[in-house]
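Input structure tokens:
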């Protein structure tokens, strides 16, 4: 994933057909939300380019969520792995499931972090597993910065 690496992201793991990517984990990245949004849009753009001649190819669903997470080695003495866990990561997975095929969605904290640098289309609140209240979801159109 060149777009992830170019933006300073870290591919944490592959989970089924999803890729978990983190920013601001290894080095301080005050603009991590912008980096993540740019990477997501670049991945979508490249997927669109590759699929242009293949109408039967599936479209990616991408989500970006911002917030605190536990980052580090987890496991037992005999088997440890570097990973990220927490509600922020779980919410990202839930948001990804709401994304229309071929689109990037963001959660409310990412929307706040991006501010006027992002052009979004509100998709309304979504009822998501593990959340008591509906979560606002936004389709990310573009990001500057």
């Amino acid at each position: 994933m060149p777009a992830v690496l170019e933006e300073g992201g870290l591919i944490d793991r592959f989970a089924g057909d999803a890729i978990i990517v983190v920013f601001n984990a290894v080095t301080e990245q005050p603009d991590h939300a912008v980096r993540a949004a740019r990477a997501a849009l670049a991945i979508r753009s490249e997927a669109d380019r590759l699929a242009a001649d293949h109408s039967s190819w599936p479209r990616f669903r991408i989500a970006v969520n911002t917030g605190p997470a536990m980052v580090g080695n987890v496991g037992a003495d005999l088997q440890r792995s570097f990973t990220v866990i927490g509600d922020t990561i779980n919410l990202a997975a839930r948001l990804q499931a709401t994304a229309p095929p071929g689109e990037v969605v963001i959660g409310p904290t990412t929307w706040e972090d991006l501010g006027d640098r992002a052009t979004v289309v509100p998709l309304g609140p979504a009822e998501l597993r593990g959340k008591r209240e509906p979560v606002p979801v936004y389709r990310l159109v573009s990001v500057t910065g």
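The longest helix spans residues 32-51. The CA atoms of residues 8 and 27 lie 9 Å apart.
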